[in-house]
Amino acid sequence: MKDTKTLFQHGTLALLVPGLFDGTIKMDEFMKHGDTGIGTGEGLDGELIVVAGVAYQIDGAGNVNKLDSRFTLPFGNMHFADYQPLKQVDGLDFVNFPENILATGGLANSFFSVKLHGTFKTMQTRSIDKQSKPYHTLAECAGKQHVFDGEDKTGTVIAYYAPQLFNGVAVGGFHSHFLADDLSQGGHILDFTGFSGDVELQVFDNLAQSLPVNDPEFKNHDFSKDDIEGAIKASE
Ligand SMILES: [Zn+2]
C-alpha cells in the first residue's frame, strides 16, 4: 500500500543558500517516494513539478519538458497524493492564499500539501537557467531568474507548507509550483490573481528527511555563517 501520510524531502532549501546545487538524488529514486511533488534540478536547472506520476521541468527559457530517470536534484519534496476536497474559491489572489488556507484552522503546526486546480486570471512564475560550477549563492542566482507572465491559465498548483517550528529543516510557510494543463506555462510561483476552482488538502503525519550524506561539499560545509532564512525569503 502506498504511504500517503509521509512527506519525503530530499536535501533542504538551506543547502541551496550557499550554492550546494549538485544533484544528489536521481529522478528514478526520487519518484519512488510519490506521484506528486516539486523540486529543482542540478545547478538550479529549472523548476520541477510532478503531477499524477509525471515529472516536468520548466527550464530557464520557460519550456515545459518531461524528465527522464537520469535527471538529478539537489532538493525536492514528494508524496503519494491522497488529497481531500477542502473548498471551492472564486477569485483568490496569491497574496491572500496563505491566510485563506490557514483560516481552515488547526493546520499551522503540521506539514501539509495543497493542490489547486482551476483557472487563474494572471499567473507569474519564474525559473532559472542551469548554473555551472563554481556555483554562486542562491541570492546571486535569483537575480538571474526568468519571469513568465500568463493570463487566463487553466492548471494545477502543488504547494507544500512547513510549520514555523521546523524552520531550518524546512522553510516555514508555503512553497508553490504551477503547471498549466496545456503545458504552456509552469514554474515556481511568484504571484497569481483571480484563482477560481477547487482547493484540496493533504496533511502529513510524518516527514522523511533524506540528506546527501555522500556529497563531499555537503559533508564539509559550515552552515553556521549562512543567512538561510534571509536568503530564502529574498529568493523564494
Ligand atoms: Zn520553487
UniProtKB/TrEMBL annotation:
This is Alpha-acetolactate decarboxylase. One of its GO terms (molecular function) is acetolactate decarboxylase activity. Transmembrane segments: none annotated. Gene3D superfamilies: Hypothetical protein, similar to alpha- acetolactate decarboxylase, domain 2 (3.30.1330.80). Pathway: Polyol metabolism; (R,R)-butane-2,3-diol biosynthesis; (R,R)-butane-2,3-diol from pyruvate: step 2/3. Keywords: Acetoin biosynthesis, Decarboxylase, Lyase. The keyword Chaperone does not apply. Its EC number is 4.1.1.5. InterPro entries: Acetolactate_a_deCO2ase. Belongs to the alpha-acetolactate decarboxylase family. It comes from Nicoliella spurrieriana.
